[in-house]
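Two entries, shown back to back:
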Amino acid sequence: MFDFINQLIFFAGEHIQGTEMEIPGLYITGHPPAPPEKVYAVAYISAGILFILAVALQYFLKKHLLKPKNTGESETENPPPVKYRTFKTVLIVLMVVLFYFLSLEAALQVYVYYNPYQKFIPDPTAGWKINPNIQRYYQNPEGVDPKDLCEMDGLLDWEYTRFKEPDAYRILVYGDSQTMATPWVGDINLTFPKLLQEKLRKAFPGKKIEVINMGVSGYSSVQGLLFFKNIGLLYNPDCVIVGLGFHDAGQSSAPDKDITSDNPWVKKLRTLLYRSQIYLLIRKKILRRRVVFRDVLKNNRPIYRRVSKEDYRENLKTFKDIGKKNNLLIVFMTVPQVGFNATAHADYVNVMRKAAEDFKVIIIDTAKSMSGFPLKKQEEYFVKDKVHFNYQGNEFMAEQIYEVIQPVLLKKEFKESGNNLKESDE
C-alpha cells in the first residue's frame, strides 16, 4: 500500500504543472520547503481520527437516510425506488467526504497558525516568498501593529509600510540570501541595507532616507523582477539597487520563466490552492520525493540554467526601463563570493557589467573590489560557506554602496515639497 502511495506521489511530481517551483532555489540554499515530520505527524493523526469519525458518520447517515418510512412494512417488502436510494447514497458519500476534508483542513489551519514552521511559503507569482507569519512570530517589534509591517509582503524588514511620507527618500535593495542576510548575522539591523541606511542618514542629517531590504533567499532575476513589478513599485521608491544574478546561473530542470507566472488567471488559481494546507502538504511531499530522485531525473531530463544569460540581460534592461518610466534611479550591483574573481558566476557578472555600460546605468562593482584582496583576506568577510556575509562582509558591502551612492545624492538636493531629487543648479 505504501509503495503504491509513493509511486502515486512520484507520478504526480512528474506531471503536475509547477510542482518543482520551490526546488531550484530553496533546496540549493539549504531551505527545504517541506515541513518537519511533526507537522506530517499531526496531519496523519488528524486524518486517522477523522477517518474513524467519517465512518461513524456514514453509518449514522446510512441508517437514518436509507431507513424505510415507519409504515409497518419491512424494507424487503416495500423497498424505496432504486433512483431514490441511489440519490441518497451519493448524498451520504458527498456529505462524509466534505466533512472529512473540511475537518482535516480546519485542524491543519489551526495547528499551522499557532506553530509556524516554514521560513518560506509558496507565492503564486514568484514561486516563494518569506513567510509573514513566521517573521511576525519571531521579529515583531513591540508597539508595532502587525498590519503595518512591510514583511506582510514577504520582506525581512519591519520598519516601513507601503505608504511613504512626503519628505522620505526610499531605496529598495533587491537580491537573494546575501542581501537578506539575517540568518548569518542574527539581526536585521546588521544587514548591509540597514548599515547603508545608517551611513546615509549620518551623511544627510535631517533627510529621511529609508533603505528597505527586498532580498529573498534563492531569488533569480526573474523572481526579483516580478517582485519589483508587483510589490516594490507599491512602496513608491526613488532608487532601486539590483543585486541579482547568483542564482540565475544555477541549474534546474525547467527555466524560471517557465515556472513563475504573472498571468492573472494562474495567480488566482495558485492563490486559491496555496490557501489549503492539505494541498501544500501533498505538494511538499511531492517536492521531497523529487529531491530524492533528482539524480535519477537528471539522466532522463534536460538541465537548464535557471535564467539564460540572454534573459538575464533582458531582465536587467526591464529594470532600467521601468525605472526610466517611473523616474527612478536604477543601480546595478555585483555581489561577491570567495574566489579568484571574487565570484562563483563570472559569466553573469560580466553580463551585468556590459549591461550597465550599454544601458548607461550606474554599477557598484563589489565583486571587482573584493577580487583585489587575497583569498585569505576575502574569507574574513564571509561565514564558513564562503558565500554569505558575516558582519564584516555586510559592513564591506554597505561601505562599497555608500561610496557610489553618496556622491550621487550629494550632487542633488531634495525638493522642498515631494520626495524626489533634482539636479543642483550649482
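entry 2 starts here
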Amino acid sequence: MSKRDELIAKYAADLKEKCGVTADMDLLTKVTIGCGPSIYNADSSTVSGLDDAELATVKNNFLIKKLGLKDSADLDKGLNAVMEQYGKSNRNKYRAVVYYLLTKHFKKESVY
C-alpha cells in the first residue's frame, strides 16, 4: 500500500469517526490527489479552524480558484459549517478532509 493510499484510508476513517460521513472513496481520492505534496508535510497537511489567515487562504485558493465559486458571504458560512461539522475543538483537521467536505457542501463534485 502506498503512502498516499494509507493517507486516504486515514482520511476516510476521520470522516467516519469525527464527521459521521461515509466517504465517497472515488471523490476523496481525487481531492487528496488534488492537494498534491502538501498532504505529506505535517504543517501543510492540516488546516487550523481558528486561524483567520489560514481560512482566508482556503477560501481564496480552494473555494474561489479551484471550485470556481464567487466570493460571497455564503463561502464564509459554508467554511464555518464545515469547521463545525469537523469539530471546532478538533486540532488536527486534515486538509484533504476539509476540502472533501467543502466540495460536498457546495455540490462541486463535478470539478473533480
